[in-house]
Design brief:
One of its GO terms (cellular component) is peroxisome. InterPro entries: ClpP/crotonase-like_dom_sf, Ech1-like, Enoyl-CoA_hydra/iso, Enoyl-CoA_hydra_C. This is Enoyl-CoA hydratase. Pfam families: ECH_1. The protein is about 45% helix and about 15% strand. The chain is an alpha/beta fold and about 280 residues long. The chain folds into two domains: about 210 residues, 2-enoyl-CoA Hydratase, Chain A, domain 1; about 50 residues, Lyase 2-enoyl-coa Hydratase, Chain  A, domain 2 (Orthogonal Bundle), CATH 1.10.12.10. The strands form two sheets. The protein has a six-stranded mixed beta sheet, with helices on both faces. Strands 4-6-8-9 form a four-stranded mixed beta sheet. Helix 1 links the parallel strand 2 and strand 3. Helix 1 packs parallel to helix 3 and helix 9 packs antiparallel against helix 10.
Amino acid sequence: MAYTYNNFNVTFPSQYVAQVEIDRPKKLNAFFEQMWKDIAKIFRELSHDPEVRVVILTAAGDRAFTAGLDVQAATENGALAKTGPVLDGARKAVALRRHILEFQDDITEIEKCEKPVIAVLHGVSYGLAIDMTTCCDIRICSADTRFSVREVDIGLAADIGTLTRLPKANVPMSWVKEVALTARDFGAEEALRVGFVSAVYESKAAALGKALDMAKVLASKSPVAVQTTKQMLNYSRDHTVADGLAQIAVLNAAMLQTKDVEDAMLSGLKKRKPTFAKL
């Protein structure tokens, strides 16, 4: 499957591992409208690609993961543009709601990806950076990362996912409200302390290296087991314990019948590394 996009590089640094790199470093990897559509398409394709078992999400350049929305581009084109027909309040609201829902769906494709997604953040990581990486399964960063839920500083409430997903990221609600209401920067060590990231590394290169090591480990395991585990963790986050137990019983009624289970168990007994079929 070919992955060719103007502002994204999709590479395969190891077997079954895909790396998605945001590639607009001269603009601090800020997003304009087409980029939202492209990242959604990339993650939809990776989700179903049998050659991919893990995805790393990173960004080009040394200065930024992403500065978020390209505000200048947004005011020149799209729903926030000042050009076009004059609409009354109701009609403008309908158009804006559709626009917001489309962008929400684009970013939600990262969360919907069947494969585990490891986010590697560095430098400026504002606004949309939080939207995207709260959709990821594992977040790590470099020591120079500067985070911010930036939207109140441009006169709006974050509407692409941060205010929905950050409260479910197992971080203190008081802290969530503080950073969302003030739009203040917070650094890598604070992000680690509250649990927004699981590790901090001295540089972007070191963080990427660790992400690749982690991805190789995940790619070596049964894709049935890994993808079902991701599905269940996300399901359990949004449901009761009883619902989660019922769901995994239904899933494993099928998954326990795979050859992966037999191969994994025998590999332990025979002290050999199992090889799992593509999914």
